[in-house]
Amino acid sequence: MTPQPSFISDPAQRLVELLQARPTQRTIVGLVGLPGSGKSTIATQLANAVNAQLGAGSMLALGMDGFHLSRAVLAQMPDPAAALARRGAPWTFDAAGLAQRLRELRAAPLTAGAPAVPWPEFEHSAGDPVENAVWVPPSTRLVLVEGLYLLHREHGWNLDGLFDTCWYLDVPMDVALQRLVARHQAAWGFSVAQAEARVALNDQLNAETVLHSRERADGLVQSVPLQA
Fold first, then answer.
1. Taking a C-beta distance cutoff of 8 angstroms, is the pair 38, 173 a contact?
2. pLDDT truncated to tens, each residue of the chain (228 aa)?
3. What is the CATH number of the domain that holds 41?
């Protein structure tokens, strides 16, 4: 029987310890969670806590959403309409591109004056990723990457060895899906029924895929209530 990961009592302090244990190297941490689990919020909170203790810029939180395949790439797939409808599924990301960028982050020299490493972000107003949206300077020795599929091992995903540790944000499925319904209502003006239908046709399928990767995590991060 596969041993289950245990909860990390103080994840911010654990991050500080990881950074201090590798003073001349960059530490890269993954944070996985269901859609709607609050990954980006928790990642930002952790970065703020670490930087408050070790100095501004010591840690940077990044997301994997910048590795979404563009609409132009999805349009070249055998069924473009289905590809767009399932955007957010594992096969609608550039997993190989993410792996390469993680390697670049790890290999980059941390000496003063060394070049920064670019990182893409997803621009919601444009509906597509934007290259070089963020630059990781050599002074940033701890990078946390949050995303859905960092522990996934199908559809071209395999990031083994690219994180020093990878955690799972443990939020119940029903809580995460309720947040997604509210998010779709706020973002798109959907009715409750429309938002629930969208969640059922895409988000819940993705959430079930993410949940199956939970046991691969090195530790669990406790969920906290989020602002509506």
1. no
2. 667 899 999 999 999 999 999 999 999 999 999 999 999 999 999 999 999 999 999 999 999 999 999 999 999 999 999 999 999 999 999 999 999 999 999 999 999 999 999 999 999 888 999 999 999 999 999 999 999 999 999 999 999 999 999 999 999 999 999 999 999 999 999 999 999 999 999 999 999 999 999 999 999 999 865 443
3. 3.40.50.300
Q: What is the pLDDT of residues 184-213, one digit of tens each?
A: 999 999 999 999 999 999 999 999 999 999
**197 lies in a domain?**
no
pTM: 0.96
Is 195 within a domain?
A: no
Do 99 and 113 meet the contact criterion of CB atoms below 8 Å apart?
no
Domain span holding position 138: 11-171+214-222
In a domain, 73, yes or no: yes
Asked if 203 and 226 touch (Cβ cutoff 8 Å), the reply is no
Instruction: Say if residues 12 and 180 touch (Cβ distance below 8 Å).
Output: no
Token representation of residue 205: 């399928």
Provide φ and ψ at 51, rounded to 5°: -65, -30
Would you say 174 and 56 are in contact if contact means Cβ atoms under 8 Å apart? no
Burial of 116 (0-12, 13-18, 19+ CB in 10 A): middle
Tell me how many domains the chain contains. Answer: 1
Query: 134 with 119: CB under 8 angstroms?
Result: yes
Q: How far, in Å, CA of 22 to CA of 18, rounded?
A: 7
122: nearest Cα among 45, 44, 69: 69
**Within a domain: 192:** no
